[in-house]
Amino acid sequence: MTANLIHVLLLLVMPPLLAGVINKTKAWFGGRVGPPLLQSYYDLIKLARKSMVLSTTTTWVFRAGPVVTLAAVLMAGLLMPLGAFDAPIRFSGDPIFFAYLLGLARFFTTTAALDTGSAFEGMGAAREVTFASLSEPAVFFALLVLARLSGSLTLTGMLHGPMGGFSAATAAPLILVAIGLFVVLLAENCRIPVDDPNTHLELTMIHEVMVLDHSGPLLGVILYGAALKLFIFGALLLHVLAPFQTGVAWADWLVFCAEMLAVAVAIGVVESIMARLLMRRVPYLLTGALLFCGFGFLLLVR
Amino acid sequence: MTSLFNGLLVIVLVMNLFALGTSRIHALIRIVASQGVLLGIILLLVHRHLTIPAFAVAMAGIAIKGFLIPAIMLRALRQAEIKREIEPLISPLASIMLGAIATAFAILFSGQLPLVDQNDGALLVPTAIATVLVGFIILTTRFKALTQVVGYLVLENGIFVFGMLLIEAMPLVVEMGVLLDLFVGVFVISIIVNHINRAFSSLDTRRLLLLKE
Amino acid sequence: MSATWNILAAIVVLGLSGLPAYLLPARSETGQRVATAAMVAGSLLGLCGVAGGVGGAIPSVAGAAWGLPYGRFSVAIDAVSAVFLALVFVVPALGSIYGLGYWGHAQHRGTGRRLGLFYGLLAGSMALVLIARDGVLFLIAWEAMAMAAYFAASVEEDDPAVRRAGWVYLIATHAGTLCLIAMFALWRQATGSFALEPAPAMAAGLASAIFVLALFGFGFKAGLMPLHVWLPGAHSAAPSHVSAVMSGVMLKMGVYGIVRMTALLPVGPPWWGGTLLVAGAITGLAGIAFAIGQHDLKRLLAYSSIENIGIIAMGLGLAVLGRALGRPEWVLLGLGGALLHTINHGLFKPLLFLGAGAVIHCVHTRELDRLGGLARRMPAVTGLFVIGSVAICALPPLNGFASEWLIYLGLFRTVGLGGEPGFAPAAVAAVVLAMIGAMAVACFAKLIGTVFLGSARSDASQHGHDPTATMMGPMIVLAFGCVCLGLFPSIAIAPLEDASRTWAALAESTPISLAAVAPLGWISAAGLGLVAVVATFALISRITPRAGAVAEAGTWDCGYARPDRRMQYTGSSLGATLVDLFGLVVWPRNHQPAIHGLFPGSATFKSVVADTVLDRLVLPFFRAAGRYMSMFRVFQQAQMQSYVLYVLTIVIVLMVWGTMGAEP
Lengths: 302, 213, 664
Known about the structure:
The complex is a heterotrimer.
Chain A: H1 2-13, H2 15-29, H3 39-48, E1 52-55, H4 60-79, H5 94-114, H6 119-150, H7 155-160, H8 171-188, H9 207-210, H10 216-241, H11 249-273, H12 282-301
Helix pairs in contact in A: 2-10, 2-11, 3-10, 4-5, 4-10, 5-6, 6-8, 6-12, 8-10, 8-12, 10-11
Chain B: H1 2-21, H2 25-46, H3 52-80, H4 92-112, H5 124-141, H6 145-165, H7 172-200
Helix pairs in contact in B: 1-2, 1-4, 1-5, 2-3, 2-6, 3-7, 4-5, 5-6, 6-7
Chain C: H1 2-15, H2 29-55, E1 60-62, E2 67-68, E3 71-72, E4 75-77, H3 79-88, H4 91-102, H5 112-131, H6 135-153, H7 160-191, H8 204-222, H9 231-237, H10 240-264, H11 270-293, H12 297-325, H13 328-363, H14 379-392, H15 399-413, H16 424-451, H17 469-487, H18 493-504, H19 514-517, H20 520-543, E5 550-553, H21 571-581, H22 583-586, E6 589-591, E7 606-608, H23 612-629, H24 640-662
Antiparallel strand pairs in C: 1-4, 2-3, 6-7
């Protein structure tokens, strides 16, 4: 019960911090001071108190988009085990529910973007759904590998591995899956080298360009949802990368938070040292991720 | 031990695919160089009883493939003033797919081979076959003289992995001989590249066909 | 017994429902109302029969009294037929109510009565196909269904495109029937009769031959790639409520055929299941890739039907594989998922077709890139269409998710959980299904975005308005079905379990149940939770004080001052990258002029996504064949004498051949 409460609390509170850490890391690489760590929280509070401007072209779909997206991502967060602890909601087959909740979020984000009737937003929507068509199969290859290794069909069971941890013989497939999942994390959360969250060139963006017309509280909901999604993917990746446990509850929570921040730093480093790929090269990168996860599967079942 | 070993070999496989996917000669050379270094490290690990000659060979391998050859090639690159990207016969995506098919084939094929038990779980054989195949793919689909050299390097890396299988049986002299051949080859090509470039103002091997008479 | 009679009566009522209209003048609306009333009454009668049949002792065989040539009139319902019958007794009736507004006899004087007649016949013959227990009876019903569908789909025959689509359909369906005739001939050879009863052991080669023929024969009807050639054309040519019935119900007759034959045949080798899985994966992936490339609203929906048939085939393949390898949980999940998806697709695809019909009805174009901005003019249709789209993308909390989830669970089990024996190649199908799912989201985001959202791309789409109650009613019922089955999929679990057990002839004592391997209750709980969270957020956004402070302005558009409605992102551009990724299969063709200079003149761009199989393979082949065959034209002299000469020649040749054969 306590674990569930802490889970929900972390899920609700921690995500914007990750964005702060990433920005700090990037600022450090660039030799700048950068915005304060808590800047994302200030932004969200400010946006919540602003009024909205709605386009005359838009309909209820535009307003439903961010709301449904946030709800879906939040549900997905409740299915994802954090660190050494079980997820609050877990049932046989929940990984599929998890993946399709993110699909629901994508459907409503893109339709909301298309509702504005702007070419830029259409462009972003097209990219989002296209790239997801390549990253989703990669995630499912990873899930298959984990299902086979752990013998479980719940996310909690899959990610915590079989009793006594993953055996050393499975390291090779897990390395491949981890590489694939990291690329998917970057793509799904619109980070460099797939998308640039900072740029203001509309032609080169994916996520940012879809939300150009959202403003005020709706924009806040979108930003918060995006941070939440990053948090969830980070938690997913951590299980594969660093399944460390101490056995003591409070220490495990601390380890999890520290690891999560480390992931944020890692993303910041990647964003600092890499250039954004040409938009037409992104499918190659994602195909690569798909292949890595596929090879992980192949190595395991051959 | 096997798991660490397999983990490193998987990274070799990943590097193969990166080599196929990249479109910059610089990046290509760096990837293949780091592959050479990694293989040297694996060679150190694979020995049960590390002898001084074996250590020396591994170190020589790392030095030559990881640093010396790349340095020569990068120098040739600078002198020939090649800034253009690789112009492969097929798109990067297609060559990644080809490499993936080759790797999958290697993994499935090596499952059928009647291997000695101790090599069963290890990824040595599939990695070796896949790396050799990827070397061939690079050789057949790239036309720049320098990328051809890179193809040979990848090919040699694959053979090198095969050599690890026979580490107890194969005299180190053979490995040294291969390394020497390779080194001399790269050395010569890198010098020639410069001259070809000056004489024909192109490094496209297709154009060199005209020289056959 | 009475259940079967109920259904027989329902079949008669449905089949003859269009006749009374012929007693009245062509423009009379009364005739159409009578036909609709008959459809509804017959369907209710049939549904009672299905309910009684499922509850009572099944299978009940009825009426062997009068014989057919070579066959018997033998009918029965069992749990498998019941699932499909439910669909037959729901969708056509709703479609006929919709037809009151959509294809009123007053507006369509020439075609209304004919459409009504064949529409009823189509529904009746489909129900007969499902209960026939004799090969000959089955074929008769099958052919009646195929022909009724042909006439119903090609009512607008003055349009050459419709004639062409009908022609392709006619050839394809008969190619399928040909396979089925061969299959039943083999069946008779193997079992000694045409009776469709579980066969005792038969030679493995013969069983495989029957299976392959069934796969082809029924595959033509279901639309498995590459046998789908007739499907897009026929669906876009037909009136929308006929498309709804064809896509939602008639395609499923092909699925039913495969389900039925695999149940009757003895347990086969694993490659049967493998073939079905591969066929399903190819069909699903190629179907959705083609769908994304379409420019025509109804062709897009037709390709999406092909994709869904692929998903059903994957579930079916898993079940066949599980039966071959003795894994009851694969059977339950695979067949349960396939049948549930059959039902689900029978709800959301008609909903989408009827929605598309409502759009076409007032806009008079099916061209996606001429539509747009209809959400403001047809809010109710938009809402229903969004529900249908979310359902067809298999997104929670609607019904498509529940069925795909069952199939996923089954496929995940083939990977060999925790080292138990599995069949890992089958698990790759889960990845394909994931890709199909993601591409379906792309496809329907494109569809909704171009048809309903943004602003109108042409003057035509400014005439949109929500249709009348007779057209809205059926759509609301279908959407309600989608929501119900999505939030409470466990209501379907008992019939599905019955059907799966009947299909695989699982003993009652098999200690495994669908409810145990698939916790559908959790899907309900999680779906309701999701709805609750959305509702809470919506409520919060209502009551927050500042949320009322809203200013209206034009779309920002990055500050561009003179946006034009034609500058919106088109449907073609939305799908372009994905279509190019699948370029090897979809083979898109772009015609664009080279643009030179700083101030180029006006230019046109055209992109075509033709059906690779039909337009690039089948038709060119037939054209070439036609050219070569025309050399035999020289024999056609149109002179009596030459024909007599041919006969004489043949007779002499035969005589010579006969004597030579007799000699030794």
